[in-house]
Amino acid sequence: MPEFTEAEPLTEPVEADAQAAPPPTPPGDAAAALSIRGLGKRFGETVAVNGISLDVPVGSFYGLVGPNGAGKTTTLSMATGLLRPDVGEIWIQGIDVWKNPLEAKRLVGILADGVRLFDRLSGQQLVTYSGLLSGMTRETVAERVADLLNLLDLQDAAGTLVVDYSAGMTKKIALACALVHAPRLLVLDEPFESVDPVSAANIRDILQGYVRSGGTVIVSSHSMDLVQRMCDHVAVIAAGRVVAAGTIDEVRNGSTLEDRFVELVGGRHHAEGPAWLNIS
Protein backbone atom coordinates (compact mmCIF):
# COMPACT_ATOMS: atom_id res chain seq x y z
CA MET A 1 0.00 0.00 0.00
CA PRO A 2 1.51 3.39 -0.99
CA GLU A 3 2.66 5.64 1.81
CA PHE A 4 0.94 8.97 2.32
CA THR A 5 2.99 11.80 0.86
CA GLU A 6 2.68 15.51 1.22
CA ALA A 7 4.72 17.33 -1.38
CA GLU A 8 6.99 20.29 -0.80
CA PRO A 9 6.20 23.30 -3.03
CA LEU A 10 8.26 23.52 -6.18
CA THR A 11 10.29 26.71 -6.30
CA GLU A 12 10.62 26.86 -10.07
CA PRO A 13 7.98 26.29 -12.77
CA VAL A 14 8.50 23.35 -15.07
CA GLU A 15 10.43 24.16 -18.23
CA ALA A 16 8.78 23.31 -21.56
CA ASP A 17 11.90 21.46 -22.68
CA ALA A 18 12.06 17.70 -22.79
CA GLN A 19 15.77 17.76 -21.88
CA ALA A 20 14.94 19.54 -18.62
CA ALA A 21 12.71 16.70 -17.41
CA PRO A 22 13.98 14.49 -14.57
CA PRO A 23 15.02 11.03 -15.73
CA PRO A 24 11.98 8.75 -15.68
CA THR A 25 11.78 5.91 -13.19
CA PRO A 26 10.43 2.88 -15.06
CA PRO A 27 7.53 1.41 -13.10
CA GLY A 28 8.32 -2.20 -13.94
CA ASP A 29 5.95 -4.52 -15.77
CA ALA A 30 2.39 -3.83 -14.59
CA ALA A 31 2.99 -2.83 -10.97
CA ALA A 32 0.65 0.15 -11.34
CA ALA A 33 -2.36 0.76 -13.55
CA LEU A 34 -1.02 4.27 -14.22
CA SER A 35 2.44 5.66 -13.46
CA ILE A 36 3.37 9.30 -14.00
CA ARG A 37 6.86 10.76 -13.56
CA GLY A 38 7.77 14.45 -13.71
CA LEU A 39 4.76 15.45 -15.83
CA GLY A 40 4.62 19.07 -16.94
CA LYS A 41 2.59 21.23 -19.31
CA ARG A 42 2.69 24.94 -20.06
CA PHE A 43 0.18 27.01 -22.04
CA GLY A 44 1.98 30.21 -23.00
CA GLU A 45 3.10 31.78 -19.72
CA THR A 46 0.76 29.62 -17.65
CA VAL A 47 2.16 26.48 -16.04
CA ALA A 48 -0.84 24.15 -15.90
CA VAL A 49 0.96 21.03 -14.62
CA ASN A 50 4.17 21.43 -12.66
CA GLY A 51 6.18 18.23 -12.25
CA ILE A 52 3.49 15.75 -11.17
CA SER A 53 4.52 12.20 -10.22
CA LEU A 54 1.88 9.66 -9.25
CA ASP A 55 1.24 5.91 -9.07
CA VAL A 56 -2.29 4.48 -9.27
CA PRO A 57 -2.41 0.89 -7.95
CA VAL A 58 -4.03 -1.83 -10.04
CA GLY A 59 -7.54 -2.56 -8.80
CA SER A 60 -7.97 0.75 -6.99
CA PHE A 61 -10.79 3.30 -7.12
CA TYR A 62 -8.67 6.43 -7.30
CA GLY A 63 -10.00 9.96 -6.79
CA LEU A 64 -8.31 13.03 -8.24
CA VAL A 65 -9.46 16.25 -6.58
CA GLY A 66 -8.45 19.89 -6.71
CA PRO A 67 -9.83 23.39 -7.11
CA ASN A 68 -10.77 24.80 -10.51
CA GLY A 69 -7.67 25.39 -12.60
CA ALA A 70 -5.55 23.02 -10.51
CA GLY A 71 -4.49 20.95 -13.55
CA LYS A 72 -6.68 17.84 -13.09
CA THR A 73 -8.14 17.74 -16.60
CA THR A 74 -4.80 18.60 -18.20
CA THR A 75 -3.10 15.82 -16.21
CA LEU A 76 -5.72 13.24 -17.21
CA SER A 77 -5.63 14.36 -20.85
CA MET A 78 -1.86 13.82 -20.96
CA ALA A 79 -2.06 10.55 -19.02
CA THR A 80 -4.48 9.07 -21.56
CA GLY A 81 -2.76 10.28 -24.72
CA LEU A 82 -5.18 13.10 -25.58
CA LEU A 83 -2.63 15.88 -24.98
CA ARG A 84 1.14 15.68 -25.41
CA PRO A 85 3.12 16.74 -22.32
CA ASP A 86 6.03 19.16 -22.49
CA VAL A 87 8.03 17.01 -20.06
CA GLY A 88 7.57 13.77 -18.19
CA GLU A 89 6.79 10.11 -18.77
CA ILE A 90 3.53 8.13 -18.50
CA TRP A 91 2.91 4.38 -18.40
CA ILE A 92 -0.38 2.48 -18.46
CA GLN A 93 0.17 -1.03 -17.04
CA GLY A 94 3.89 -0.64 -17.79
CA ILE A 95 3.36 0.51 -21.40
CA ASP A 96 4.74 3.92 -22.36
CA VAL A 97 1.78 6.01 -23.53
CA TRP A 98 3.73 8.12 -25.99
CA LYS A 99 6.19 5.51 -27.28
CA ASN A 100 3.50 2.84 -27.77
CA PRO A 101 0.27 4.88 -28.00
CA LEU A 102 -1.92 2.28 -29.74
CA GLU A 103 -0.97 -0.50 -27.34
CA ALA A 104 -1.50 1.76 -24.32
CA LYS A 105 -4.83 3.18 -25.53
CA ARG A 106 -6.29 -0.30 -25.97
CA LEU A 107 -6.07 -0.65 -22.20
CA VAL A 108 -7.92 2.54 -21.28
CA GLY A 109 -11.49 3.81 -21.49
CA ILE A 110 -12.00 7.56 -21.25
CA LEU A 111 -14.88 9.82 -20.33
CA ALA A 112 -13.37 13.25 -20.93
CA ASP A 113 -15.11 16.38 -19.66
CA GLY A 114 -16.12 18.76 -22.46
CA VAL A 115 -15.14 16.52 -25.39
CA ARG A 116 -17.81 16.56 -28.13
CA LEU A 117 -19.43 13.29 -29.11
CA PHE A 118 -20.68 12.39 -32.57
CA ASP A 119 -24.13 13.53 -31.47
CA ARG A 120 -25.83 13.12 -34.86
CA LEU A 121 -25.67 9.37 -34.30
CA SER A 122 -28.20 7.55 -32.15
CA GLY A 123 -27.03 6.25 -28.79
CA GLN A 124 -26.88 2.70 -30.13
CA GLN A 125 -24.94 3.80 -33.21
CA LEU A 126 -22.45 5.80 -31.15
CA VAL A 127 -21.57 2.94 -28.81
CA THR A 128 -21.44 0.53 -31.76
CA TYR A 129 -19.05 2.87 -33.58
CA SER A 130 -16.81 3.05 -30.50
CA GLY A 131 -16.76 -0.74 -30.23
CA LEU A 132 -15.94 -1.28 -33.91
CA LEU A 133 -13.08 1.24 -33.67
CA SER A 134 -11.49 -0.99 -31.04
CA GLY A 135 -11.36 -3.88 -33.53
CA MET A 136 -14.08 -6.15 -32.15
CA THR A 137 -16.37 -8.17 -34.40
CA ARG A 138 -19.86 -6.85 -35.15
CA GLU A 139 -21.40 -9.76 -33.25
CA THR A 140 -19.39 -9.03 -30.10
CA VAL A 141 -20.08 -5.30 -30.37
CA ALA A 142 -23.83 -5.84 -30.79
CA GLU A 143 -23.97 -8.06 -27.70
CA ARG A 144 -21.99 -5.60 -25.57
CA VAL A 145 -23.96 -2.57 -26.77
CA ALA A 146 -27.24 -4.26 -25.79
CA ASP A 147 -25.82 -5.12 -22.35
CA LEU A 148 -24.54 -1.57 -21.74
CA LEU A 149 -27.73 0.16 -22.88
CA ASN A 150 -29.71 -2.08 -20.54
CA LEU A 151 -27.25 -1.60 -17.68
CA LEU A 152 -27.37 2.20 -18.00
CA ASP A 153 -31.15 2.31 -18.48
CA LEU A 154 -30.82 3.71 -22.00
CA GLN A 155 -32.56 0.95 -23.96
CA ASP A 156 -35.64 3.12 -24.60
CA ALA A 157 -33.41 5.89 -25.98
CA ALA A 158 -31.23 3.60 -28.10
CA GLY A 159 -32.63 4.95 -31.37
CA THR A 160 -32.70 8.61 -30.28
CA LEU A 161 -30.03 10.97 -31.61
CA VAL A 162 -27.48 11.84 -28.92
CA VAL A 163 -27.99 15.55 -29.69
CA ASP A 164 -31.49 15.15 -28.22
CA TYR A 165 -30.26 13.49 -25.01
CA SER A 166 -30.36 15.27 -21.66
CA ALA A 167 -27.03 16.11 -20.01
CA GLY A 168 -27.32 13.08 -17.74
CA MET A 169 -28.14 10.73 -20.60
CA THR A 170 -25.17 12.10 -22.54
CA LYS A 171 -22.87 11.27 -19.62
CA LYS A 172 -24.23 7.74 -19.52
CA ILE A 173 -23.84 7.11 -23.25
CA ALA A 174 -20.28 8.46 -23.06
CA LEU A 175 -19.61 6.00 -20.23
CA ALA A 176 -20.97 3.17 -22.39
CA CYS A 177 -18.52 4.19 -25.13
CA ALA A 178 -15.67 4.08 -22.60
CA LEU A 179 -16.67 0.62 -21.34
CA VAL A 180 -17.56 -1.20 -24.56
CA HIS A 181 -14.05 -2.55 -25.24
CA ALA A 182 -13.63 -3.79 -21.61
CA PRO A 183 -10.62 -1.61 -20.72
CA ARG A 184 -8.22 -2.38 -17.86
CA LEU A 185 -8.21 1.28 -16.77
CA LEU A 186 -11.18 3.65 -16.77
CA VAL A 187 -10.49 7.41 -16.56
CA LEU A 188 -13.55 9.54 -15.83
CA ASP A 189 -13.48 13.34 -15.67
CA GLU A 190 -16.50 14.64 -13.68
CA PRO A 191 -18.67 11.59 -14.52
CA PHE A 192 -21.51 12.54 -12.14
CA GLU A 193 -21.96 16.14 -13.22
CA SER A 194 -25.58 16.75 -14.36
CA VAL A 195 -26.53 13.14 -13.56
CA ASP A 196 -29.66 12.57 -11.46
CA PRO A 197 -29.26 10.76 -8.09
CA VAL A 198 -30.79 7.48 -9.28
CA SER A 199 -28.56 7.31 -12.36
CA ALA A 200 -25.55 8.33 -10.26
CA ALA A 201 -26.22 5.47 -7.83
CA ASN A 202 -26.49 3.01 -10.73
CA ILE A 203 -23.24 4.28 -12.24
CA ARG A 204 -21.46 3.95 -8.88
CA ASP A 205 -22.67 0.34 -8.61
CA ILE A 206 -21.36 -0.41 -12.11
CA LEU A 207 -17.97 1.16 -11.37
CA GLN A 208 -17.60 -0.60 -8.01
CA GLY A 209 -18.40 -3.92 -9.67
CA TYR A 210 -15.82 -3.15 -12.35
CA VAL A 211 -13.16 -2.50 -9.67
CA ARG A 212 -14.09 -5.69 -7.78
CA SER A 213 -13.52 -7.64 -11.01
CA GLY A 214 -9.95 -6.30 -11.26
CA GLY A 215 -10.38 -3.06 -13.20
CA THR A 216 -9.00 0.30 -12.09
CA VAL A 217 -10.98 3.54 -12.01
CA ILE A 218 -9.61 7.08 -11.82
CA VAL A 219 -12.30 9.67 -11.23
CA SER A 220 -11.92 13.44 -11.14
CA SER A 221 -14.63 15.16 -9.11
CA HIS A 222 -15.40 18.29 -7.12
CA SER A 223 -17.60 16.33 -4.71
CA MET A 224 -15.45 15.51 -1.68
CA ASP A 225 -18.25 13.52 -0.03
CA LEU A 226 -18.68 11.35 -3.13
CA VAL A 227 -14.92 10.73 -3.43
CA GLN A 228 -14.65 9.88 0.29
CA ARG A 229 -17.50 7.36 0.05
CA MET A 230 -16.58 5.85 -3.30
CA CYS A 231 -12.78 5.84 -3.59
CA ASP A 232 -10.08 3.95 -1.68
CA HIS A 233 -7.21 6.23 -2.79
CA VAL A 234 -7.05 9.94 -3.54
CA ALA A 235 -4.60 12.57 -4.76
CA VAL A 236 -5.07 16.28 -4.07
CA ILE A 237 -3.76 18.59 -6.81
CA ALA A 238 -3.27 22.34 -6.42
CA ALA A 239 -1.47 24.77 -8.74
CA GLY A 240 -0.35 21.91 -10.98
CA ARG A 241 1.29 19.92 -8.15
CA VAL A 242 0.36 16.90 -6.06
CA VAL A 243 0.11 18.21 -2.50
CA ALA A 244 -1.07 14.93 -0.95
CA ALA A 245 -1.62 11.35 -2.12
CA GLY A 246 -2.41 8.03 -0.50
CA THR A 247 -5.35 6.07 0.81
CA ILE A 248 -8.47 8.03 1.70
CA ASP A 249 -7.84 7.55 5.43
CA GLU A 250 -4.20 8.59 5.15
CA VAL A 251 -4.99 11.78 3.26
CA ARG A 252 -7.93 12.90 5.37
CA ASN A 253 -5.91 12.18 8.54
CA GLY A 254 -8.83 11.84 10.95
CA SER A 255 -10.80 14.72 9.42
CA THR A 256 -13.35 14.75 6.61
CA LEU A 257 -11.86 14.78 3.13
CA GLU A 258 -13.50 18.15 2.48
CA ASP A 259 -11.93 19.78 5.57
CA ARG A 260 -8.55 18.25 4.76
CA PHE A 261 -8.84 19.40 1.16
CA VAL A 262 -9.53 23.00 2.22
CA GLU A 263 -6.63 22.83 4.67
CA LEU A 264 -4.27 21.66 1.92
CA VAL A 265 -5.31 24.03 -0.86
CA GLY A 266 -6.38 27.04 1.22
CA GLY A 267 -9.04 29.54 0.24
CA ARG A 268 -11.55 29.36 3.09
CA HIS A 269 -12.52 32.79 4.39
CA HIS A 270 -13.96 32.82 7.90
CA ALA A 271 -16.26 35.80 7.38
CA GLU A 272 -20.00 36.11 7.70
CA GLY A 273 -20.27 38.56 4.83
CA PRO A 274 -21.19 42.27 4.75
CA ALA A 275 -23.56 43.72 7.33
CA TRP A 276 -26.29 44.31 4.74
CA LEU A 277 -26.67 40.53 4.32
CA ASN A 278 -27.68 40.22 7.99
CA ILE A 279 -31.45 40.26 7.48
CA SER A 280 -32.22 40.25 11.20
Tell me briefly what this model is:
By secondary structure, this protein is α/β, with parallel strands linked by helices. The protein has helices spanning 72-79, 101-105, 123-133, 138-151, 167-179, 197-212, 224-230, 248-252, 257-265; strands spanning 32-43, 46-57, 61-65, 87-92, 95-96, 108-111, 185-189, 216-220, 233-238, 241-247.
What topology emerges from the helices and strands here?
Blueprint: E1 32-43, E2 46-57, E3 61-65, H1 72-79, E4 87-92, E5 95-96, H2 101-105, E6 108-111, H3 123-133, H4 138-151, H5 167-179, E7 185-189, H6 197-212, E8 216-220, H7 224-230, E9 233-238, E10 241-247, H8 248-252, H9 257-265
Parallel strand pairs: 3-8, 3-9, 6-7, 7-8
Antiparallel strand pairs: 1-2, 1-4, 4-5, 9-10
Can you give a write-up of this model?
The protein is 31% helix and 23% strand. Strand 4 (87-92) and strand 5 (95-96) form a beta hairpin. The chain is built from 9 helices and 10 strands. By secondary structure, the protein is an alpha/beta fold. The relative contact order is 0.17. The strands form 2 sheets. It has a 6-stranded mixed sheet, with helices on both faces. A 4-stranded antiparallel sheet has the order 2-1-4-5. It has a domain at 116-182. It has helices at 72-79, 101-105, 123-133, 138-151, 167-179, 197-212, 224-230, 248-252, 257-265; strands at residues 32-43, 46-57, 61-65, 87-92, 95-96, 108-111, 185-189, 216-220, 233-238, 241-247. The longest helix is centred in the C-terminal third of the chain and has 16 residues, at 197-212. Helix 3 packs across helix 4 and helix 3 (123-133) runs parallel beside helix 5 (167-179). It is globular, with a radius of gyration of 20 Å.
